């Protein structure tokens, strides 16, 4: 018997009942081979990059960012310039948005019809995501949808947060490019509101197998991602061929390298596989900003020779879609190796 859920939750049990029942029946027979420890991501205070910092502070901060991007592919930042008031305002608006009845989220065309949930193509629990999200192009945040101002405060908060995260992402990308001897703007000139995204995530409580994914293992298909998460936890990443759980720190923002930056840097910076595990009792919220170029942009390399063929972002996205449709999983950069 499946438990009743709040009206705001997607009907995971209804649509995936056979898949979930099958996983529960097999749960006691399945051995989990992944050993998960807990880690504290490298913490970097960005005050060394701000105006007024001396050159030694700037060099030390830039070196710490580059080191973490090479060794971990992930790091945390403090003094990032995004106020706790704005993050708190965004969280309240996000909770209000996801608290609407499920039918309203799916049928009202909210935020440019950006609502999604679960994994419609899932054939097994390993391909299934127990989560819901609004994945919104920045240029669509302020687009009118004829809802008579119902979501004006949400749009206003999203616009402010997107602007602040865009500024932070460009600064970090510039530091990483300069570390390799390139002008900071050399590859992000085609990143704009038309191509970058803000994603609002909610992971409802999941009463089933503890191995259920909130978000299945993947790498990000962008230059870099900035994440603000709550205190619940669930984010895990691959480190030294083992999954490690990231200890949540709501005061810090998490930054991770995406596939495009790994390709551009000739594998110096690492786009690391990560996932979110569902929580049996608590719901989890996060907000992610994705720094992406135009679909026509050629990614190239900061230095030749490169281990990768030249490709556009559009070609990369299409290959990812084809692989997911065919196999259920993203393949990613290895498709473009020479």
Automatic annotation (TrEMBL):
Does the keyword Transcription belong to this entry? Answer: no
Single annotated GO MF: gibberellin 2-beta-dioxygenase activity
Catalytic activity entry = gibberellin A1 + 2-oxoglutarate + O2 = gibberellin A8 + succinate + CO2
- Tell me the ranges covered by the Fe2OG dioxygenase domain, including all copies: 194-293
The alphabetized UniProt keywords are: Dioxygenase, Iron, Metal-binding, Oxidoreductase
**EC number, UniProt record:** 1.14.11.13
Task: Kindly give the Pfam families that the UniProt entry links to this protein.
Answer: 2OG-FeII_Oxy (PF03171), DIOX_N (PF14226)
Q: Which InterPro entries match?
A: DIOX_N, IPNS-like_FE2OG_OXY, IPNS-like_sf, Iron_ascorbate_oxido_reductase, Oxoglu/Fe-dep_dioxygenase_dom
What are the names of the required cofactors?
L-ascorbate
| Protein family (similarity comment) | Belongs to the iron/ascorbate-dependent oxidoreductase family. GA2OX subfamily.
Stated name of the protein: gibberellin 2beta-dioxygenase
- Organism listed in the record: Phoenix dactylifera (Date palm)
């Amino acid at each position: 018997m499946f438990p009743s859920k709040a009206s705001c939750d997607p009907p995971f049990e209804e649509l995936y009942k056979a898949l979930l029942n099958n996983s529960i029946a097999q749960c006691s027979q399945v051995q989990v081979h992944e050993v998960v420890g807990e880690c504290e991501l490298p913490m970097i205070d960005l005050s060394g990059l701000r105006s007024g910092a001396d050159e030694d502070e700037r060099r030390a901060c830039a070196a710490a960012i580059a080191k973490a991007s090479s060794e971990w592919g992930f790091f945390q930042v403090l003094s990032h310039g995004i106020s706790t008031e704005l993050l708190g305002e965004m969280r309240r608006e996000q909770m209000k948005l996801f608290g609407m009845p499920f039918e309203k989220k799916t049928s009202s065309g909210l935020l440019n019809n950006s609502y999604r949930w679960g994994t419609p193509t899932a054939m097994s629990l390993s391909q299934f995501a127990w989560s819901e999200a609004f994945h919104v192009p920045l240029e669509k945040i302020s687009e009118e949808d004829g809802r008579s101002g119902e979501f004006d405060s949400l749009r206003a908060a999203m616009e402010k947060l997107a602007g602040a995260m865009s500024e932070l992402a460009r600064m970090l990308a510039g530091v990483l490019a300069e570390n390799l001897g390139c002008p900071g703007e050399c590859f992000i000139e085609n990143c704009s509101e038309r191509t970058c995204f803000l994603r609002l995530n909610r992971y409802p409580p999941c009463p089933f197998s503890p191995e259920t994914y909130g978000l299945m293992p993947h790498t990000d298909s962008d230059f870099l991602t900035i994440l603000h998460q709550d205190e619940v936890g669930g984010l895990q990443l691959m480190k030294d061929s083992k999954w490690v759980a990231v200890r949540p720190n709501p005061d810090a923002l998490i930054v991770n390298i995406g596939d495009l930056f790994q390709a551009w840097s000739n594998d110096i910076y690492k786009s690391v596989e990560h996932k979110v595990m569902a929580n049996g009792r608590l719901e989890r919220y996060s907000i992610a900003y994705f720094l992406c170029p135009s679909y026509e942009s050629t990614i190239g390399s900061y230095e030749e020779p490169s281990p990768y063929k030249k490709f556009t972002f559009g070609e990369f996205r299409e290959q990812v879609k084809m692989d997911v449709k065919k196999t259920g999983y993203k393949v990613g950069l290895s498709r473009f190796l020479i």
